[in-house]
Amino acid sequence: MPQADQGFSFKVLTINTHKGFAAFNRRFILPELREAVRTVSPDIVFLQEVLGAHEKHSQRFENWPVVPQYEFLADTMWADFAYGRNAVYPDGDHGNALLSRFPITSHSNLDVSIGGTEKRGMLHCVLQVPDRELQLHMICVHLGLRERHRREQMLAMGRHIATLPAHAPLVVAGDFNDWRQQANTILQREAGLVEVFTQARGRPARTFPARFPLLRLDRIYVRNARISEPTSLANQPWSHLSDHAPLAVEIHL
């Protein structure tokens, strides 16, 4: 018999991978990043700015993976993964991705680009927890640089979330670029989302730039879930592996 969802918990981590390069693009560090993520042992990993392909980089770097970056990061620890391609250019493409220890039963990439600006998307994945009658909804996002664009994108996110089952556990995580601190109010009003660091400590975590975090750009939001141990990974080796500090949290249902 399937178990009830009571007492179930899982860990999530979100990180802007900076396309596999250290800050200022000085060094290709994707193998080091994979090892660092493994040490946290998250069940679900939200990735932003992850490369699907890049022809010139693959020829330039000897240790460039033969598979897409998200598949390289998943390796043997995360059996399922999904990729939402957003930006496409002559040498390749990049977007958001989700790595999961639970089966991904469906996924879609919703285009939330505004006009002729940089392409942006929301990767929505539905996960099935084995041996439980429980589906998890995960949305990985990377919002725009302009406040007006971010607002429109968050309103679009709210409209999409309104179509989901009202009582389903939901996690929305990624790089919100929300340096003016508007997202919490909008997403609470439009979608009933609660930001985990705000709930635990009164405000979102500082994540950018990773070596000396000042701006609170990255977020983890939840609905129909409880949280514990929100953590900002701003120390070494993380500060050398991306320009954004990763965030992690334990989620309880």
TrEMBL record:
Name of the featured protein: EEP domain-containing protein
GO biological process: GPI anchor biosynthetic process
Source organism of the structure: Acerihabitans arboris
Domain Endonuclease/exonuclease/phosphatase: 33-244
One GO cellular component term noted in the UniProt record for this chain: membrane
Single GO MF annotation: catalytic activity
